[in-house]
Amino acid sequence: SNWELSSARAFSVLRLLETNGVAPHRLSAIGYGEFRPLKSNDTPEGRSANRRIEINIMRREE
Q1: What is the DSSP string of the chain?
Q2: Which pLDDT score, from 0 to 100, does residue 43 have?
Q3: N or C terminus of the chain: which is more exposed, having fewer CB within 10 Å?
């Protein structure tokens, strides 16, 4: 399903970051599949825009 594919993509980025020294406890991965599109999935351009990875970097609370 699109949701499973989205989750697998997110997890692969998480693993890449972990492999490059980011501590696992600082990472989380979420796949949204078709549930948070940027554009309509009715066109190839829209589907292409929706195949994305978003990375949020948050400041640590002190």
Answers
A1: -HHHHHHHHHHHHHHHHHHTT--GGG------GGGS-SS-TTSHHHHHHHS-------PPP-
A2: 96
A3: C
Is the pTM value of this prediction over 0.85?
Answer: no
Nearest-angstrom CA–CA distance, 47 and 9: 15
Place of tokens 């190839």: 44
Domain boundaries, the chain: 2-50
Token output for 15: 């693993």
Question: Residue 6 class from Cβ within 10 Å (0-12 exposed, 13-18 middle, 19+ buried)?
Answer: buried
CA gap 10, 53 in Å, rounded: 7
